[in-house]
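Morning, I've got a small favour to ask if you have a moment. I've been staring at a protein lately and its backbone has me curious. You're getting the sequence in one-letter code plus the fold written as tokens. I've dropped the whole record in just underneath, so have a look:
=====
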Amino acid sequence: PSNGLVVQGNVGIGSTTPGAKLEIYDTTGNAFTLDGSGNVTQRIKTNGTEYGALYHLAADNDLNLRASHASGALKFLSGGSNTRMTIASDGNVGIGTTTPGSLLNLYSSAPAVQISPSNYGGTNYASYLGSRSNAEAVLQLGNNGANDIVGGNTAAGGYLRFIVNNSNAFPSAPNGTVAMTINSSGNVGIGTTTPT
């Protein structure tokens, strides 16, 4: 080709035994650089179809990683070929599952979110929201002193309801029995939703 080069076989830069079409080996830690005056993109294709790209847009300071296919997901693997986290094409994130059914889906024999305050260290004061292996849901508040469950955020009037015998799956409204209500005045109702 004009102003080009055709090489038959593998090409090694810094290597005399390249094991791929292009193998770059460098001992300084700067083996490969992409640079440009505008948008810079590294595309990954199979038979001419793009399936992914790593790119930077000149208009911002972000590094973007893209699964290009309309139904493509981003998968993060560790420990060999074990998929640990998946970002599906609809934006749902799965940890332990490749088919997340909600914005964040934790899937394991006993999935949980652990919240550990760094100034106390370790798990001594950690709080958990999770499920035991027998599917019992657990909310464990880790402070050995005061723990808060708060109803309301930006305005007055927040209250708490405790509902049992529910058969509607989230995000549908619960259809169970309101076993207890704590209204915004602090009154507790058992058997009534309007305690006075």
Remarks:
- The first strand starts at residue 11 and ends at 13.
- The chain is about 0% helix and 35% strand.
